Amino acid sequence: MRAITATLALAATVLLVPAPGSAVPGETPIQPGAKIFSPVGQCTMNFVFTDPAGTLYIGTAGHCARVGDRVSSEEGSFGTAVYSHRTTVKDFALIRIDTDRYDQVDPAVRAWGGPTGHTTATETTIGDPLLQYGFGIGFGEAAETRQRLGPMSNDSFTRYRAYVPSNFGDSGSPVLHAATGKALGVVVEFAYATGLSEGPTVEAILADLAAEGYALAVVTAPWEPFIPN
Known about the structure:
6% of the residues lie in helices and 34% in strands. With 229 residues, it is mainly beta. It folds into 2 domains: 2-21 and 110-202, Trypsin-like serine proteases (Thrombin, subunit H); 35-107 and 210-218, Trypsin-like serine proteases (Thrombin, subunit H, Beta Barrel). It is globular and about 40 Å long.
């Protein structure tokens, strides 16, 4: 994961740990919020996607897997990176899941459930609560701190930013819009000292993928409305 600032200040960060909703999904090896391993290192999986033929894919950050890399879950190899961009604006990798691993796939975001679809820039605004699940250093050791929430501080078609603390290992983490349960973005950068994290929006990712010939849709999952305390 790239840091938003050049220096990581290991200052105390207030971490809001919400109780999950009533429709809490179980855990499977290939799922939004699960660990992913590649020759580049360890990151976090985000959303499950499908094409008109029914092929299944899952995403992570672009700097977490290169095209052609074989990737693994905690239960072994499961797919190949078929698309990867690692620029500042475009930082996303698409993993085509092996068909013999489809029975290990769950599209529900760990702890939160959803997504119910994906957001557009016209239906979100600064201050909206966002939900994340990831395996960042210092957060990933306990299930209670893998799930995090915070307000959105920047909102555009291509990029979001939020006060949701992240660290190395959270790269690729799924970010949900709390009011709708929709897939909003992917964590690719952070500033540990301020608790800020940011990345591309799912709306922009899908547009980029379509331009590359991947007509994909987010695979949805059950969702219970989340109301922050």
